Records
---
Amino acid sequence: MQRASRLKRELILLTTEPPPGITCWQNESRADDLRAQILGGEGTPYEKGIFNLEVTVPERYPFEPPKICFLTPIYHPNIDSAGRICLDVLKLPPKGAWRPSLNISTLLTSIQLLMTEPNPDDPLMADISSEYKYNKPLFLRNAKEWTEKYASQQKSASETLSEEVNQTEASTPKKSAISQKRKGSDTSIREKKSRLDS
Amino acid sequence: MRGPSPAGRGRGKRAGFERAWGEGSMAGRALLRLCPLLLRQDRRGSAYEGFVTAQGRDFHIRILLPSDFQLKNARIQCSWQLKRLLHGYRQILKQRLQHCSDLVSFMEELKTILEVALKNTEDLHTPPPPEYYSHLIRDIETLGWNKIVYVDTGLSSVKLKAEDSRGRQHLITLKLNAKYPAEPPDCFVDFPVQFAVSWIPQSSLIDIYSQFLAALESLKEFWDAMDEIDEKTWVLEPENPTRSATMRRIAIGNNVSINLEVDPRHPAMLPECFFLGADHVVNPLKIKLNNNMHLWNPEVHLLQNLKEVLEIEFPSRVVLEKSDFSMDCGICYAYRLDGTVPDQVCDDPRCGQPFHQACLYEWLQSLPSSRQSFNVIFGECPYCNKVRKYFRKRIFEQNTALEDRKISPTLFPSLSMTRKLKVGQTNFCGRFYACFSSGIEI
């Protein structure tokens, strides 16, 4: 009951006054399925990357937090290979810090902040976390590489065209293995392909 | 100028001290090396007078030790210059007196403090020479007082205004140092590019001003392009772009936007751009951009070019009426919910967030930290929970309430809400029934 009125207002706000570097929209007019994009922050290894996210709004929203996960692969101590995010505001109390005073816009901003400031003391990816802690240059290099590989929008229109043609082509086994972990596998394949085409 | 004469302290002679501080002793020699101008005044070594040297300046000082020669009870008399210098360091000096084991180490500390004090005071208190002011005033007069927007009281910071040929107002802030005009002032401008001032000792404010005007003209085209975008499109980001901002995020349609990074030196060229939004809308735009790239005409304005290449019209700004938001429920973001209006208000005046009773109850009862006692639920306001606030929720026995208070049935919530609460109520007491209305006091 509260969800409908809340989502309506939130979607209007997200359209008219989106937070800096963030877009969010309704996916094919289904009320509970939203898509979002976060721009990698300047001065972070995610710079110039566009990261796609899926926002699922539960029945009991806003009494329960929305479920948010990354569709674009990201190299980050608090985001696992399935795109799940370790962030307190995404969980209900007492473990988490979700409150109805938060909303989708503020959550996405929090995620953007988490990208800028990873929290290696509460890791989801132990390897990446220790790398972040003890070998920062290597972490930065890896994260940058992943950003260029999966989140870069330097695919131009002709590539988009050709990828539609090539869509039936099978990708290499390694690539599909990675992307199958993701719900957004199709996007990552497309992005990878376009890089090949260019 | 000397301080008052020392008060006579105890006269007990201490052989040990005498040995240690005697003329030929180690400590005596160390003191002599450190402060050659500080001399012992009596045989016992309880009074010293002379000069302490720091940064080539001598300061008159007298140190009087008490009868037990404990340094922490020593009296220190200074000349007025020294007193002024050490004014802000009294606490540190006292602390050093407490901790130093002998006079030599204290004198060493005192010298260090003095060096610091001298350095700081010179920076702070030396006013620029008179020529500085006369020079500056002459410069401003030549420039014209009408160009001045702001001058601080010390005449060290000046703000000048200028108008470019398109009538845009610009400001330049100059921070002058005491050596002006031998050294250039620091210039602060709101430019997308660096503004470097070329300066020779003969230069003046007038030179800076003309360089500023020239720079304004060179950026004219860039600001023209940006102004056109700001005026004719719906800029989502940045909110209030400064003159130095080269980035714009422009709305194209519902949840689709384009990010532009305009080169301030070549504003007519195709800017660096990318799209945000759902693939099915963004991809056709990308195709158009790619296919029509050759149509980009540097002779035409940036916005016009964008329209032609993308084959779109940019929508104009949609303004939301924000004024009514403050009345809405902080949880469901609506004013009316099943015929009820927000009637619970956080009682912290700094918060004052309104809620529907139903919304607040549903949230609080799901929290383990909330407590329910008969007719009241206590919990934290979801908005300002740092201040521990308690919300009251009226829940009372159905029969007595209905009979005693003659509640009109319209005050009750919808059936669905009642059902939900009936499930919840068994948690604390089966006999109670939840009522959601504002006007009832228990």
---
Amino acid sequence: MTEREFFSLQTRPEGRLRVERDASAHPSEARPTTPLIEARRLTKHFPIQPSLLARLLAGQRDRLVRAVDEVDLAIWSGETVGLVGESGCGKTTLGRMLTLLHRPTSGEIYFQGRPLVGHRVLTTDETGQVSRAPYYRLTQIVFQNPYSSLNPRKTVRQILTAPLRARGVKRPADIEAEVRFLMDRVGLNPSHIDRYPHQFSGGQRQRIGIARALAMRPLFVVADEPVSSLDVSIQAQVINLLEELQAEYKLTYLFIAHDLSVIHHISDRVAVMYLGHIVEEGATDELFAAPRHPYTQALLAAVPVVEKAARRSRILLQGGVPSPIDPPSGCRFHPRCFVKKGQICEQEKPPFFQVNGQRVACWLYDDHPHAATAPSVDAVSLEPAKGRQ
Amino acid sequence: MARPILELRNLTTVFPTRRGEVRAVDAVNLALYPGQILGLVGESGCGKSTVLLSILGLIARPGRITGEVLLDGRDLTKLSNRELRRLRGKEIAMIFQDPLSTLNPAFPVGEQIRESLRLHNMLPGPWLWPFDAGRRQREKERVLQVMEEVGIPAPEARYRAYPHQFSGGMQQRALIAIGLACNPRILLADEPTTALDVTIQAQIIALMKRINQEHGAAIILVTHDLGLAAEFCDHIAVMYAGRIVEIGSVDQVIENPQHPYTQGLLRCIPNLKERRPLQPIPGSVPDLADLPLGCAFAPRCPDFQPVCAEGFFRLQPVIENGRKKVHRSGEVHMARCLRLTGYRMPEDD
């Protein structure tokens, strides 16, 4: 385990933030322990408000869709964090919150150790200048569906010009040059600059989406299932492009996907989500070699693989993902769990246990020989564990 | 080997367009044997779904089907619509890709499953047919039995539920139940799990495998997921631009791919075991209205030789252990690549 990964799992005492802020006065100091972006107990609840009639006649009340519930995630500069889970588990919502496309219901986002204030954040550039920058300048998103995320009435030139203007490129000649450069960089023919999205294939449209995100010169890019709607041969092209761009522009990715083989290929670390919670997190190779959480185990076993030797016995989960409106009590996975420990799974939310390099939220590891209770990134989830001891 | 229950001979499906005729399916020869699971693999637009639709005669005008689709020696392309309707759902059933748009939102799921039983008069009464009150009850019992079989919990309660009350996996199960209701001999599955999560996909695939083993239904699975095809199927046919470019048993095609397209596909799938750079196939799928002469894959092919662009050529048997076997389609590993003949245009036999 590298030092960086080690620190990702360690407690950060509350006072550290202030220390960091002081340290920011000396930007020359390397701070490998500060994540580029950090989510602390990030929560998003969507209210369902029934109509007045439904309220009066059927007696319906407001309900909450608990899309993301108290999620902690730290992403260091230059790495790719893969976020996997089934549909409806909140991975897209988390990605959108990290780019502020959704306002979190509660919880905080820290950028380079500094909290977000409104839509702005303090950043330090290479020269050590501290400035307040709009958050959208620093984080961008590549959307899942290249057919619906590009305006059909705008040409590539118009699509790519908007972020350039927002970044402050003013002269038309500069804009044109940069649009052509971006198109060339993502593998599009710059002579197609005045074409409309429908004149491109799915893979090419996704390249436009990537160019649009790059135009802002972001530090952090959320790639929200960028390849899931593409054919395999095109998928490989786009993955390779994303990897090249990361190396060239030192980008940091949160790569959201439901395809585990893609995640395995591209990520340095992986976080597995289930019904709004992160259930397991760890370095990619370790997590794929020895998944700890029963959900991760089932997820990995369900992936069809080409190699004969790699085929494993299936773990067939029963039923589907429960609704996030009234999620199960305790561990949210317990109704489908095949190694349920007992009452405790149904009653108490498991805290994170540290098993080797991984962070696992499962009661199985409560008295695991290698397990230590993961330091309290979220204090609340730790409380029940204290009560039990 | 037993006789094939379904045989496609030179099946060609043509759609006239403004830019000329598009051969969505071009001279496809396939044989499906009883109890076999055949995978049809390829990227979108390669004609794999059109093959299934052509088998059932579901190609709308002005699309045309030529060639033969033989079911027990009967040519389905010659049948009238009325005769075809007697076969669809009873002998050959189809599971479509998108359950939400396939199920009718206005009718309860149970009734939709019952529909095929009713139309095929699967459970006839003694003679009172139009006034047979017990028939509905018998059909309902069969529907509940099928729903139970495909793993829909509490079928009694779910019988009257509408499609929107089902989750994606449950909707897919309901579609499979419709397909299974009449105990067909052949099941055509068009990307049945593409819209589903992997854990649900594993459930559906296990279910289809069980149906194959318990009822002996032969299955044609259309998928773009090579991993899924490799795990689930006995035989695989890889399609590219409307043609089968490689066919053989799973082991032959996956372990020893001969066509450069199959090799390319296998190389660009991320591997769960080791991380190696992906080698994408350069370029993209050609326009079907404007196919190059000769091998359709030639413009993207790493082993391209000028002779590849010279004319149409057949699937060539792969020479294994130094000898060429007598072949019948579906039994022997074959690939449509001139590399196998040492870049000599084969003489038509």
---
Amino acid sequence: MSINRLKGGLIDHDAPLNFSFDGKKYEGRAGDTLASALLANGVRLMGRSFKYHRPRGVLSAGSEEPNALVELRTSARKEPNTRATGVELFDGLEAKSQNRVGSLAFDALGVNDLFQRFFAAGFYYKTFMWPAPFWEKVYEPMIRYAAGLGSISFQDDPDLYDKGFLHCDLLIVGAGPAGLAAALTAGRAGARVILAEEDYCLGGRLNAERQPLEDISGPEWVAKTQAELASMDNVRIMARTTIFGAFDHGVYGAVERAADHLGVPAADKPREVLWRIYSKKTLLCSGAIERPIAFEKNDRPGVMLAGAVRAYANRWAATAAEDVVVFTNNDDGHKTAGDLRAKGVNVPAVIDVRQGVSVAGETEILTGATIVDTKGRLGVKSVTVRLADGKTREIPCGAVAVSGGWNPNVGLTCHQNGRPAWNETIQAFGPGERLPVGQSVAGAANGDMSTHAALTGGAQGAVEALEALGISAKPAEVPAAEDAPVSITPYWHVAGAKRAWVDFQNDITVKDVKLAHQEGYRSVELLKRYTTMGMATDQGKTANVTGLAIMAELTGKPIPETGTTLFRPPYTPVAMGALAGRSVGKEFHPTRLTPSHKWAEEQGAAFVEVGNWMRAQYFPRKGETHWRQSVDREVLATRGSVGVCDVTTLGKIDVQGADAATFLNKIYANAFAKLPVGKVRYGLMLREDGIAYDDGTAARLAEDHFVVTTTTANAVLVYRNMEFARQCLYPELDVQLISTTEAWAQYAVAGPNARKLLQKIVDPAFDISNEAFPFMGCGEITVCGGLRARLFRISFSGELAYEIAVPTRYGDALMRRLMAEGKEFDVTPYGTEALGVMRIEKGHAAGAELNGTTTALNLGLGRMVSKKKDCIGNVLSEREGMAAPDGLALVGLRPLSSATIPAGSHLMAATGPIDAKHDQGYVTSAAYSPVLKTGIGLGFLKDGSNRMGETLRAVNPLEGGEVKVEVVSAHFVDPEGGRVRD
Amino acid sequence: MLIPHPLLGLRDAAEFTYLGDAALIERPEGDIENAQDVFHNYLFLRDNPAGEHRELWFHEQGDRSWLVVTRNTVTHEIIKAELARDVAIQKGRST
Amino acid sequence: MTDLTAIPPLGGTQPLVEKIGDIGIVEVIDRALASIAVRAGQDAALSELMASKFEIGLPEAGQCLETKPSRIWWMGPGQWMMDGDHDSREDLAAELKAALGDVASVTEQTDGWCRFDVSGSDLSEMFARLCGLDFAALKSGAATRTLLHHQGCFVILSELGASVLGPRSSAGSLHHALVAAAKSVA
């Protein structure tokens, strides 16, 4: 039997659930949280503190919890730092305490507590300064081991997470009395409403209080209201959903814990959903968070917030102990005493710091009294009270219910730089003037602390929010409810305490605040950073106001003048899995497959990721044990007979219009206006600053029709820039653009037998002889019995070559046909590696050379840049430094030994120092040339064009090593370029 | 952020690519005097206002329109959004 | 006719058909596509030709018109996409170009795209897990391009459900995203 289980509440006493904590088995009830179930089982000790490893128990009953953080679940599903107060109990739940060495009851690092004076604020900064190398190797690992929170599993998360998008007129954050009244109002008016509640039950404090709403209980009114809301198609009720951030323009972030209350989510269903909510208006009904009073050793398990003690009793039928002392500075504390007694819990004393307070029915009230000490190693056993007359009295108890007043929960009002404002009546910060666009606040979050005020404020808030949208609404009629004014005397900490905690999660005491003050860190922002107060995962929800109030007291300034720090998203921690959503593993990004992918897979190709594309890298054959063997074979076979390569990934942009040629003249550095129909030209694109950024070809299919190709990597960027030029720079031109990259399967067919192979598939009506279809020719043809195709006689390999394009759906069949028809020529498919080798053998620039720092002049293409026309990049390409005659020039490099040249090496003189000052240039691309049977390289060398034959060193200081190289022409193979014209 | 597309209404900023100052529309002609200086100013010298800023956004995952968005860089309020092509024509970049 | 065999974007021998709960996801391969972009100053002429030759109008931004046997939807200012039956009008672009002449630029788009038709009693929950469109507020005839699984995709609503057109090369990824979303809400 659970020793601290009470009667009643909103749990199902007939539905037992088994769970374990630190390996020990317990029984809870459906409707319990892990925290309430532990309390009901007499477990007060739930964790160890961050710095001092002090025993800690649960403080609160909500998401503000700083202490009761556990590791939930096991193995790959282990989730550290989970607040026990938010964990909905399920059968078979396993949880462990964290931040301990040894058992929870005897934590070996509890010894830290004995050295507490060393762990005060600023301790690390002052202490671990010397010797400097010790920080990384010794101090930091040691501190990280001792401090910190839970541990992760280091295994892949087996569960799914979704992302989603929702739209609404009114987002209501929080389904307490204000939120429910607002939802009723807006729902009845027909507005699209989202009602988000972090708890698994709607109702908020209504579930935790005993006062009726007119003639029914709070939970009964909640159930009735929920039923009506659920019947409305225009209202979306989202329980277990935390609105964690308020972003620009009414966008809110939300996490729905769709399956966190189950041991394992159902198949194919997400554990959590990360929602982006587009709201026209938002009503924040997030309630209030109680704050503790700092007193001597107020961190012992059993010292809890009074409102939480009341909630555990009323909603969860659980109490932390049989004897509970109340410590308060306001009337709300007395409510807890009354409710506990009604549940049969003994309240030996209500200690009220206020003088001369009397409360109806309260007999054990000690006014003008404070708690000056507590006892009990693993949980409070007694409190020592200093009475109004100065005498002390020790009162045995198992729990202390503390109320220092309630802070409106203004976290989401701050996310767009809003600053909370001090509210004198309730002695707390409420929402400031500047709220996120479209947001308003109602209920306790707005400082309206009574249930009546929350109900009416919520209804009225909804009316006003909808009015701004042109939706007229009538405030929902609300039941008569408790409407007591807030009666509070500010009281932050008990003077003279040696160790009184302010921020439980980061282990910050009153003394730390005093130390910060003493050392001059007096602004709240500095106080926060010096002490780390409010910087734990709870963002100081129960700590910040107390901390800054103490600072105000020390500086002698009023609290509003002292100010407060801001809350930032996320309101509560968000799981990494939810942020990643479905974009994990091989779905991290879309995978683009080429038309010949399936065929290439059948050939056993090795693939390489190029952007999102999967490209065949090489095609290993039986007996080949090293990629170089395959690549060398593919190069030699292509240069010797014929090879085929899938080049579909190159960007293709269709350019049409009466002014298409004029347009291309603007975007290419070289001239296109006079390109005849049926011809292709190589083109170089510059950025406006004169740097070369992409190259490709433009084929003129008609007077008013070009097909532009781009590099694979820059396809998106070039299209974007071309649209910029079309829409923003030259809107007068008649030109239209559209990408056709995916529409056409395109294959390079290269080698001396390329034409012979193509003649076997090109329909006889089309003459592709050298005379009829010369180098740089292009045309629309048909293949394989009438299939429309495009043929371009262009060559990247330096061989007689074509690129042939057919509609993508036929790409697979065309590749198979080319292989079948090419058997007699021993046709060889080649991948990106062989493609790369052959282009280096030809000295063709690629991404490594068009690297964002090089100009046309550097690339040896200076003469291409037309001086006769205005094109993008033309003017600035002639800037003094970029046009220097002795600047970097593209050269070929040949090792003087059998070594290969590491790409990325820097070029230094044959002798002399190796340093940046003597840098002559660098190697951009390198390969082994199976044709020349030697390593070769391309690189940029100062004044390179005039240095043929010179010997240099290619040095690689990063990996070590240097290679002697000779500067040669970049055209290693067929330098005259005769083959492409054969 | 949400961008009020002049043709399509509010669209998530995730659909857009940002470029920068809308002054980039006003590209000088290449054959003018002091072209180097003028282009240097055009390309590299930018105002960085704390307040209203006219900037270029490309609806890359949408209708492929370039927009001129007037945005307050302090509050992120978007005051208006226009088709950049219309702006360019108004600025005389048209015959 | 060519003797080359076409394959569907997902690479099977037949278009893939999935049923998840009451949500159907069908790979559609029987549509030819061509883009139509109006030439400078030819807006009225293009409208007239489209009406007279194809009995179809030019839809406004965000809209799709369906006049059997074709759909036409707005892609961007001055640009539309039209489809037609693939078997009988495979070279739709050539057909359109012949009809429209210098009034418009026409570009073949048939294999630039993969298309999945999604049907079911309530698709708004499924699409809420896929893209930022206010799907529930969209009506039949809405057509818009939006970000869906990191890619710009057209989402077109008809009486029968929604068509999603995405880049053909990543058909597998798009299909996976659609199936995953359907399973999440089914």
---
Amino acid sequence: MKRAGFSTRWLPIMLLLPQLLIIVIFFYWPAWHAVRSSFFLQDPFGFGETFVGLKNYASLFKSSAYMRSAWFTLFFVVLVTFFSLAIALLFAVKADKVLRGAKTYRTLLMWVYAVAPPVAGVLGVIMFDQSWGPATEFFALLGYDFRLGVNYYDTAFAMVVVSVWKQLPVNFIFFLSGLQSIPRSVREAALIDNRSASSRFWDITFPLLAPTGFFLLITNITYAMFDTFGVIDVLVRGEPGNNPLTLVYKVYVDGFRGNDLGGSSAQSVVLMVLVLAMTVFQFRMVERRIHYT
Amino acid sequence: MAQVTLDNVRKVYPNGFEAVKPASYNIADGEFVVLVGPSGCGKSTMLRMIAGLEDISDGALKIGDRQVNKVDPADRDIAMVFQNYALYPHMTVRKNIGYGLKNRKIDKSTIEAKVQEAATMLNLTEYLDRKPSQLSGGQRQRVAMGRAIVRDPSLFLFDEPLSNLDAKLRNQMRIEIKALQRRLGVTSIYVTHDQIEAMTMADRIIVMNGGIIEQIGTPAEVYHSPASTFVASFMGAPPMNLLEGRVDGGMIRVGDTVVGNTTLAVTGPVTVGIRPEDLEPSVGGQLRIDVSIIEELGAHRLVHGHIAGQALTMQIGKDTAIGDGPIPVAIKNNAVSLFDHQTGNRL
């Protein structure tokens, strides 16, 4: 094969430059700043900084509020990922069986995807509103006094519900296309080999969906950790004090509300390490992933 | 083992399309029946109805003594081999073959023994721990066969199982499948669009066209006495010559030439069918064929020419010398079939 080349050494660099500039300005530069300021104690009014070494990190892991937020994030991510995957899979399996009006049905399910996270948050606020939210009234009907923004667990519940709801369509689309890429004859062969529909699903359909499922698992964890910011921001309505916070939201609260830039930077460095670990894990797994022909 | 009985079995799709018109026939215990026809003729739909993968719109289907119209595919005691093998890509060959047994609550050692037995029969023992993606087309086909035979079903269904293989492998597998079926003695229904497969493998052939069964018969019957012009032109390569002719006073004429005589009480226009190999160059032959093209096929030659302005093909031996231009040709005895001019049915 003939190797295509450039006549000058500068042209390729020039062509790459815009992309590199964007990455440097919007990623490396802020990231470097975060790493750097995580070693400093910032004056709240921006009049100076003092080098404190690893003290920001040390106080982070000694802080009960931070650990509480870390635990909450773990539960939040597990719950959101599990339910958004499980419910989406259920919908996809059901939608896959629909023959008449399948397109309309799928489009309706996909619409939610177009809703921006803060708007989803607002919808959540409306649903769970203290005085007239339909969800609150439903809970009242069951004899439960649902208090969004006041009760820690109620707020957490609303956060999980809205985040799951927001993520369902993406997972649904991927699962549905995954299901439809399973050859019809393979399913028919299973139909002859196995009379139980549920065991057919776990023996044949589910393993063949595994590549899709794994991809979604990673994207959903990322979503639950980072992209739920808008939902949380609207739901806790500027009263983060006694409400559950994810780590990402806590970075924002501590840095921009608490004006503790050093501590907030340390938190974002921890998150960076976490993301890095997840990325490495993902690539390792993707490499080992079985490809079916 | 079982016989299969269809009584006015019919398939109508929700959009009103009648894929299979009411069909009735019997398949005897241990018989190898081939359903053949062009694509879209309803042969696959017929097979899928017997398998239970399609609902039967009307009529009754019996496997053995049991009516199975509403029985789940898994409970019909059948095994099916699919065109694209339909192996489970995430399972090893061993698990693929054993999957049907595992779900029938058979204990592990029995399954293992049966899988081994099937694998030995199909020369698959060394591939048992491989995934289907690591196998060649022919090996995958064997695994699909193994999955069918390991179950000891009372009926085998084959849906164009050889059409994804190359020509050489297809010939080999054709013989293997036939031999295997003979050995196991399991009633089999085999769908194909390839008339050579139909001719070589079948005990009986069912020729379908447009949802209708055109003819049921042994390969020899179907070949030598086709029930319609469709069967005549579909079975056999090259196909039967179909010429416009007429009968008067017991004489069959094509143009001005008398090609034979008939005892049938017909007069007027007919379609005259003559197999290409039933024509031979002969000095005293009654036909004059104007030869235009000679195809050399090695074992024999195809001579394309015209008679009374109608195209005609003749198959001759490789040693028969022949040139262009008009030549005298004779027809072998009893080699002329007559079909209704309008309906195409055999007279």
